[in-house]
Design goal:
By secondary structure, the chain is α+β, with helices and mostly antiparallel strands. The chain folds into 2 domains: 9-121, Aminopeptidase, CATH 3.40.630; 122-266, 3-Layer(aba) Sandwich (Aminopeptidase). Helix content is 39%, strand content 25%. It contains 11 helices and 14 strands. The strands form 2 sheets. Strands 1, 2, 3, 4, 5, 6 and 14 form a 7-stranded mixed beta sheet that branches. Helix 8 runs antiparallel to helix 9 (184-198). The radius of gyration is 20 Å and the shape is globular. The two termini are 22 Å apart.
Length: 295
């Protein structure tokens, strides 16, 4: 019988060790994301042998993250099915990729229906391209960068715990400007960002702050996701400061991403503006993810 519990910071050590075994590139396979979004998605964590398990939502509509770790995948998925049945819930796996879809079909032939979730696809970029912004397609980004550096007294700093309160003040101003309270997804994100900042040091994150005349105009937070990928959790800037977004991106990644082939900038949650912004950096590919529903 599987057991699921509230996600706590003390779970990070064992969770990271199991996530490392799978080396998945999806944003769901990062302890920080599991931890800071747990309240929004009603997430509970579990462990079975060398597998990390995650259950979200409530019965009769539980959803289970495709397990990360090593061992008998068929055994652990059958136990997850039993857990759903015990709770009178349908059984749905999330975060399924083309690779793990093949594993499912091999172990459970003709047992699952697969549904594409475009809003959950992760944007994956070549790290070198995001740092250099080279090529004709990214010329507009370089123009914004040149304008920023030529017209501002700016500085970049590594984010540290002493800056957290200042960043929270920036967040409040940013949210007021974009009217976060009017949009459910932005309200959810605000909660996750606050939890991330409150636990920044304990989560072993990396971040950067961009200032103009000493005032924060942008910041970002990310970390190493797997053996070849850096992930960006948060990136915010005042949109009226031309070039602030590409500058915070460039400065942060130039320090964190060398040695890693890819950057995962996560999904766009179906937001048209966010989708347009992420597409403007020309991802090398989209990490497609599916829902797998047992029938």
């Amino acid at each position: 019988m599987l057991e699921f519990k509230k996600i706590e910071l003390k779970d990070k050590v064992w969770a990271d060790s199991l996530l490392k075994l799978s080396d998945f590139r999806g944003a769901e396979y990062c302890f920080t994301n599991l931890f800071i979004w747990d309240g929004i998605y009603q997430s509970k964590i579990g462990r079975y042998k060398d597998f990390l398990l995650l259950r979200t939502g409530s019965a009769p509509d539980f959803r289970y993250l495709y397990p990360a770790g090593k061992g008998d995948v068929k055994e652990v998925i059958e136990l997850m099915m039993e857990d759903a049945a015990r709770c009178d819930s349908a059984f749905t796996l999330i975060g399924v990729t083309e690779q793990t879809e093949q594993v499912l079909n091999s172990n459970f032939p003709d047992r699952f229906n697969f549904y594409s979730g475009r809003d959950t696809f992760d944007y994956i970029y070549e790290s070198e391209k995001l740092i250099s912004l080279s090529g004709k397609k990214l010329q507009p980004k370089r123009n914004h960068l040149n304008y920023f550096t030529s017209n501002n007294n700016w500085s970049y700093e590594e984010l540290n715990s002493s800056m957290i309160n200042e960043i929270k003040e920036f967040n409040h101003e940013w949210c007021a400007r974009v009217e976060c309270k009017k949009y459910e997804t932005l309200s959810w994100e605000s909660c996750a960002v606050e939890k991330c900042l409150d636990n920044y040091h304990l989560l072993n994150l990396r971040g950067g702050v961009l200032r103009v005349d000493g005032k924060i105009v942008a910041y970002t937070i990310g970390e190493i996701l797997n053996s070849d990928t850096v992930i960006i959790h948060i990136e915010k800037a005042f949109s009226e400061v031309r070039g602030a977004y590409p500058m915070i991106n460039k400065e942060f990644l130039s320090r964190v991403a060398p040695g890693y082939q890819y950057v995962n900038r996560e999904d766009d949650i179906g937001d048209e503006g966010l989708r347009k912004a992420k597409e403007s950096y020309y991802p090398i590919f989209m990490l497609e993810k599916f829902y797998a529903k047992l029938f």
